[in-house]
Amino acid sequence: MTIIQLEYLLAVANFGSFSIASEHCFVTQPSLSMQIKALEEELGVMLLDRSKKPVVPTEAGEAVLAQVRETLREFHSIKEVVHQLKGEVSGEIRLGVIPTIAPYLLHKFVPEFVQRYPNVKVEVREMKTADIIEALNRDHIDVALVAGGTCGEGFIEHELFDDKFYAYVSPRNSLYNKSNVRIEDIKSSDLILLSPGNCMRDQVVELCQLYRSDSPNYTFESGSLDTLMRIVDNTSLITIIPKMALDFVPEERKRQVKTLFKGASSRKIALVTRRSYVKKSIVDALRTTIAEYK
Fold first, then answer.
1. Does 163-267 carry CATH code 3.90.320.10?
2. Could you report the per-residue pLDDT of 91-135, keeping only the tens digit for each?
3. Segment 25-73, tens digit of pLDDT
4. For labelling, which of 6, 73, 101, 154 has a CA lying 20 to 30 Å from the CA of 216?
5. Considering the domain 1-71, what is its CATH architecture?
6. Where are the domains of the chain?
7. How far apart are the C-alpha atoms of 193 and 8, rounded to whole Å?
8. What is the pTM of this model?
9. What pLDDT was estimated at residue 201?
10. How far is residue 226's CA from residue 21's CA, in Å, rounded to a whole number?
Protein backbone atom coordinates (compact mmCIF):
# COMPACT_ATOMS: atom_id res chain seq x y z
CA MET A 1 0.00 0.00 0.00
CA THR A 2 1.43 3.37 -1.03
CA ILE A 3 0.51 7.03 -0.65
CA ILE A 4 0.17 7.23 -4.44
CA GLN A 5 -2.42 4.45 -4.42
CA LEU A 6 -4.39 6.20 -1.69
CA GLU A 7 -4.30 9.50 -3.58
CA TYR A 8 -5.48 7.83 -6.77
CA LEU A 9 -8.33 6.09 -4.93
CA LEU A 10 -9.45 9.35 -3.33
CA ALA A 11 -9.31 11.15 -6.68
CA VAL A 12 -11.59 8.59 -8.35
CA ALA A 13 -14.00 8.75 -5.41
CA ASN A 14 -14.05 12.56 -5.56
CA PHE A 15 -14.49 12.86 -9.32
CA GLY A 16 -16.53 9.70 -9.96
CA SER A 17 -14.43 8.99 -13.02
CA PHE A 18 -11.15 7.24 -13.76
CA SER A 19 -10.43 9.49 -16.73
CA ILE A 20 -11.00 12.76 -14.85
CA ALA A 21 -9.07 11.47 -11.85
CA SER A 22 -6.12 10.54 -14.04
CA GLU A 23 -6.06 14.04 -15.56
CA HIS A 24 -6.20 15.58 -12.09
CA CYS A 25 -3.33 13.35 -10.90
CA PHE A 26 -1.25 13.95 -14.06
CA VAL A 27 -1.02 10.23 -14.82
CA THR A 28 -2.33 8.01 -17.59
CA GLN A 29 -5.65 6.28 -16.95
CA PRO A 30 -4.16 2.74 -17.31
CA SER A 31 -1.48 3.55 -14.71
CA LEU A 32 -4.06 4.94 -12.28
CA SER A 33 -6.37 1.95 -12.79
CA MET A 34 -3.49 -0.48 -12.30
CA GLN A 35 -2.49 1.13 -8.99
CA ILE A 36 -6.04 1.03 -7.63
CA LYS A 37 -6.44 -2.57 -8.76
CA ALA A 38 -3.22 -3.48 -6.94
CA LEU A 39 -4.55 -1.80 -3.79
CA GLU A 40 -7.81 -3.75 -4.02
CA GLU A 41 -5.90 -7.02 -4.45
CA GLU A 42 -3.71 -6.24 -1.45
CA LEU A 43 -6.73 -5.50 0.75
CA GLY A 44 -8.79 -8.33 -0.69
CA VAL A 45 -11.91 -6.21 -1.31
CA MET A 46 -13.43 -4.20 -4.14
CA LEU A 47 -13.20 -0.53 -3.27
CA LEU A 48 -14.99 0.98 -6.30
CA ASP A 49 -18.16 -0.02 -8.12
CA ARG A 50 -17.10 0.41 -11.73
CA SER A 51 -20.54 -0.57 -13.08
CA LYS A 52 -22.02 2.72 -11.85
CA LYS A 53 -21.73 6.00 -13.72
CA PRO A 54 -20.33 7.96 -12.05
CA VAL A 55 -18.07 5.46 -10.33
CA VAL A 56 -18.97 5.14 -6.63
CA PRO A 57 -17.23 3.54 -3.64
CA THR A 58 -18.46 0.17 -2.44
CA GLU A 59 -19.42 -0.26 1.21
CA ALA A 60 -15.88 -1.41 1.92
CA GLY A 61 -14.59 1.48 -0.17
CA GLU A 62 -16.45 4.04 1.95
CA ALA A 63 -14.95 2.59 5.12
CA VAL A 64 -11.45 2.61 3.62
CA LEU A 65 -11.86 6.13 2.23
CA ALA A 66 -12.68 7.51 5.67
CA GLN A 67 -9.27 6.29 6.81
CA VAL A 68 -7.59 7.38 3.57
CA ARG A 69 -8.70 10.99 4.07
CA GLU A 70 -7.30 11.07 7.59
CA THR A 71 -4.06 9.38 6.49
CA LEU A 72 -3.49 11.83 3.62
CA ARG A 73 -4.21 14.81 5.87
CA GLU A 74 -1.54 13.66 8.28
CA PHE A 75 0.88 12.83 5.47
CA HIS A 76 0.53 16.23 3.82
CA SER A 77 0.81 17.96 7.20
CA ILE A 78 4.46 16.97 7.44
CA LYS A 79 5.54 19.81 5.13
CA GLU A 80 3.27 22.21 7.02
CA VAL A 81 4.94 21.31 10.31
CA VAL A 82 8.36 22.04 8.79
CA HIS A 83 7.13 25.36 7.36
CA GLN A 84 5.88 26.36 10.82
CA LEU A 85 9.19 25.46 12.42
CA LYS A 86 10.96 27.65 9.87
CA GLY A 87 8.45 30.47 10.36
CA GLU A 88 7.36 30.19 6.74
CA VAL A 89 3.87 30.61 5.29
CA SER A 90 3.91 28.32 2.29
CA GLY A 91 1.74 25.74 0.57
CA GLU A 92 -1.75 25.58 -0.89
CA ILE A 93 -5.07 26.83 0.49
CA ARG A 94 -8.44 25.96 -1.05
CA LEU A 95 -11.05 28.44 0.16
CA GLY A 96 -14.82 28.08 -0.10
CA VAL A 97 -16.94 31.24 0.24
CA ILE A 98 -20.72 31.61 0.48
CA PRO A 99 -22.46 33.79 -2.18
CA THR A 100 -23.55 36.48 0.31
CA ILE A 101 -19.90 37.13 1.23
CA ALA A 102 -17.93 36.46 -1.97
CA PRO A 103 -18.91 39.55 -4.04
CA TYR A 104 -18.40 41.97 -1.15
CA LEU A 105 -15.22 40.78 0.57
CA LEU A 106 -12.99 38.67 -1.69
CA HIS A 107 -11.74 41.58 -3.77
CA LYS A 108 -10.64 43.39 -0.61
CA PHE A 109 -8.30 40.79 0.88
CA VAL A 110 -7.34 38.22 -1.79
CA PRO A 111 -4.99 40.51 -3.82
CA GLU A 112 -3.23 41.63 -0.64
CA PHE A 113 -2.94 38.07 0.67
CA VAL A 114 -1.43 36.84 -2.61
CA GLN A 115 1.05 39.70 -2.64
CA ARG A 116 1.96 39.28 1.03
CA TYR A 117 2.37 35.50 0.84
CA PRO A 118 3.76 34.70 -2.62
CA ASN A 119 4.59 31.11 -1.64
CA VAL A 120 0.96 30.27 -0.98
CA LYS A 121 -1.19 29.03 -3.84
CA VAL A 122 -4.78 30.23 -3.37
CA GLU A 123 -7.82 28.54 -4.92
CA VAL A 124 -11.22 30.15 -4.27
CA ARG A 125 -14.66 28.64 -4.90
CA GLU A 126 -18.07 30.25 -4.36
CA MET A 127 -20.38 27.66 -2.77
CA LYS A 128 -23.55 27.36 -0.71
CA THR A 129 -23.19 26.33 2.92
CA ALA A 130 -24.37 22.73 2.42
CA ASP A 131 -21.86 22.27 -0.40
CA ILE A 132 -19.12 23.79 1.77
CA ILE A 133 -19.81 21.30 4.56
CA GLU A 134 -19.59 18.38 2.14
CA ALA A 135 -16.47 19.80 0.49
CA LEU A 136 -14.72 20.22 3.85
CA ASN A 137 -15.63 16.69 4.88
CA ARG A 138 -14.37 15.27 1.58
CA ASP A 139 -11.21 17.41 1.52
CA HIS A 140 -12.27 19.24 -1.65
CA ILE A 141 -11.53 22.50 0.18
CA ASP A 142 -9.39 23.32 3.22
CA VAL A 143 -11.18 26.26 4.82
CA ALA A 144 -14.38 28.23 4.31
CA LEU A 145 -15.60 31.78 4.81
CA VAL A 146 -19.17 31.50 6.11
CA ALA A 147 -21.78 32.86 8.49
CA GLY A 148 -20.91 31.61 11.96
CA GLY A 149 -22.95 28.82 13.48
CA THR A 150 -24.14 27.37 10.17
CA CYS A 151 -21.79 24.41 9.66
CA GLY A 152 -22.73 22.32 12.70
CA GLU A 153 -20.57 19.98 14.74
CA GLY A 154 -17.18 18.65 13.70
CA PHE A 155 -15.77 22.03 12.67
CA ILE A 156 -13.70 24.77 14.28
CA GLU A 157 -14.93 28.35 13.81
CA HIS A 158 -12.46 31.23 13.78
CA GLU A 159 -14.70 34.24 14.33
CA LEU A 160 -13.72 37.32 12.32
CA PHE A 161 -16.31 40.10 12.75
CA ASP A 162 -20.01 40.98 13.03
CA ASP A 163 -21.92 41.86 9.88
CA LYS A 164 -25.00 43.91 10.75
CA PHE A 165 -28.29 43.54 8.84
CA TYR A 166 -30.13 46.45 7.22
CA ALA A 167 -33.47 46.79 5.51
CA TYR A 168 -33.34 47.84 1.87
CA VAL A 169 -36.68 49.53 1.21
CA SER A 170 -38.41 50.58 -1.99
CA PRO A 171 -39.30 54.32 -2.21
CA ARG A 172 -42.85 53.13 -2.87
CA ASN A 173 -43.07 51.27 0.42
CA SER A 174 -44.75 52.84 3.45
CA LEU A 175 -41.58 52.30 5.54
CA TYR A 176 -39.38 54.31 3.19
CA ASN A 177 -39.77 57.58 5.10
CA LYS A 178 -38.58 56.04 8.35
CA SER A 179 -34.89 56.29 9.23
CA ASN A 180 -35.14 53.15 11.33
CA VAL A 181 -37.35 50.13 10.71
CA ARG A 182 -38.80 47.82 13.34
CA ILE A 183 -38.74 44.13 12.46
CA GLU A 184 -42.38 43.75 13.46
CA ASP A 185 -43.42 46.45 10.98
CA ILE A 186 -42.08 44.51 7.99
CA LYS A 187 -44.90 42.63 6.29
CA SER A 188 -44.17 39.15 4.99
CA SER A 189 -46.01 40.13 1.82
CA ASP A 190 -43.46 42.92 1.24
CA LEU A 191 -40.31 40.93 1.97
CA ILE A 192 -38.37 39.13 -0.76
CA LEU A 193 -35.73 36.56 0.15
CA LEU A 194 -32.70 34.69 -1.01
CA SER A 195 -33.44 31.25 -2.45
CA PRO A 196 -33.32 28.10 -0.27
CA GLY A 197 -29.81 26.86 0.41
CA ASN A 198 -28.50 30.31 1.30
CA CYS A 199 -27.89 30.42 5.03
CA MET A 200 -28.68 34.15 5.18
CA ARG A 201 -32.23 33.31 4.08
CA ASP A 202 -32.66 31.13 7.18
CA GLN A 203 -31.27 33.88 9.38
CA VAL A 204 -33.67 36.46 7.91
CA VAL A 205 -36.64 34.11 8.25
CA GLU A 206 -35.77 33.60 11.92
CA LEU A 207 -35.11 37.29 12.47
CA CYS A 208 -38.43 38.36 10.98
CA GLN A 209 -40.36 35.38 12.38
CA LEU A 210 -41.67 34.50 8.93
CA TYR A 211 -44.19 33.60 7.86
CA ARG A 212 -46.22 34.76 10.80
CA SER A 213 -49.54 36.25 9.74
CA ASP A 214 -49.83 37.88 6.36
CA SER A 215 -49.61 35.66 3.31
CA PRO A 216 -47.56 37.16 0.47
CA ASN A 217 -49.30 37.67 -2.86
CA TYR A 218 -45.99 38.29 -4.61
CA THR A 219 -42.98 36.06 -4.05
CA PHE A 220 -39.53 36.32 -5.53
CA GLU A 221 -36.42 34.40 -4.55
CA SER A 222 -32.88 34.70 -5.89
CA GLY A 223 -29.40 33.48 -5.10
CA SER A 224 -28.11 37.03 -5.54
CA LEU A 225 -28.52 39.94 -3.14
CA ASP A 226 -27.89 42.34 -6.02
CA THR A 227 -30.85 40.86 -7.91
CA LEU A 228 -33.10 41.26 -4.86
CA MET A 229 -32.05 44.89 -4.54
CA ARG A 230 -32.86 45.59 -8.19
CA ILE A 231 -36.31 44.05 -7.69
CA VAL A 232 -36.85 46.32 -4.69
CA ASP A 233 -35.81 49.34 -6.77
CA ASN A 234 -38.59 48.64 -9.26
CA THR A 235 -41.40 47.48 -6.95
CA SER A 236 -42.82 48.42 -3.55
CA LEU A 237 -40.98 45.61 -1.76
CA ILE A 238 -38.25 45.20 0.90
CA THR A 239 -35.26 42.95 1.34
CA ILE A 240 -32.58 42.48 4.00
CA ILE A 241 -28.92 43.09 3.18
CA PRO A 242 -25.69 42.76 5.21
CA LYS A 243 -23.44 45.67 6.09
CA MET A 244 -20.72 44.46 3.72
CA ALA A 245 -23.09 45.10 0.79
CA LEU A 246 -23.57 48.79 1.66
CA ASP A 247 -20.47 49.90 -0.24
CA PHE A 248 -22.16 48.66 -3.42
CA VAL A 249 -25.37 50.65 -2.98
CA PRO A 250 -25.29 53.62 -5.42
CA GLU A 251 -25.27 57.04 -3.76
CA GLU A 252 -28.71 57.85 -5.14
CA ARG A 253 -30.09 54.72 -3.44
CA LYS A 254 -28.52 55.25 0.01
CA ARG A 255 -31.81 56.54 1.46
CA GLN A 256 -33.33 53.13 0.82
CA VAL A 257 -31.00 51.61 3.43
CA LYS A 258 -32.64 51.56 6.87
CA THR A 259 -31.25 50.58 10.26
CA LEU A 260 -33.10 47.71 11.91
CA PHE A 261 -34.40 47.92 15.47
CA LYS A 262 -33.45 44.47 16.68
CA GLY A 263 -30.79 43.35 19.14
CA ALA A 264 -29.71 40.27 17.16
CA SER A 265 -29.95 41.78 13.69
CA SER A 266 -26.53 40.64 12.48
CA ARG A 267 -24.51 37.60 11.51
CA LYS A 268 -21.02 36.61 12.55
CA ILE A 269 -18.51 36.03 9.77
CA ALA A 270 -16.11 33.18 10.43
CA LEU A 271 -13.41 31.03 8.89
CA VAL A 272 -14.28 27.37 9.36
CA THR A 273 -11.95 24.37 9.28
CA ARG A 274 -12.35 20.70 10.14
CA ARG A 275 -11.19 19.69 13.61
CA SER A 276 -8.37 17.63 12.11
CA TYR A 277 -7.17 20.43 9.86
CA VAL A 278 -3.48 21.24 10.15
CA LYS A 279 -2.52 24.19 7.89
CA LYS A 280 -2.49 26.51 10.86
CA SER A 281 0.10 28.99 9.60
CA ILE A 282 -1.79 29.66 6.35
CA VAL A 283 -5.17 29.90 8.10
CA ASP A 284 -3.73 32.33 10.66
CA ALA A 285 -2.29 34.46 7.85
CA LEU A 286 -5.65 34.43 6.09
CA ARG A 287 -7.48 35.46 9.28
CA THR A 288 -5.09 38.34 9.86
CA THR A 289 -5.43 39.62 6.31
CA ILE A 290 -9.24 39.45 6.30
CA ALA A 291 -9.39 41.28 9.64
CA GLU A 292 -7.50 44.18 8.07
CA TYR A 293 -9.84 44.43 5.08
CA LYS A 294 -13.27 43.61 6.58
1. no
2. 889 999 999 999 999 999 999 999 999 999 999 999 999 999 989
3. 999 999 999 999 999 999 999 999 999 889 999 999 999 998 998 888 7
4. 101
5. Orthogonal Bundle (1.10)
6. 1-71, 163-267
7. 42
8. 0.75
9. 85
10. 37
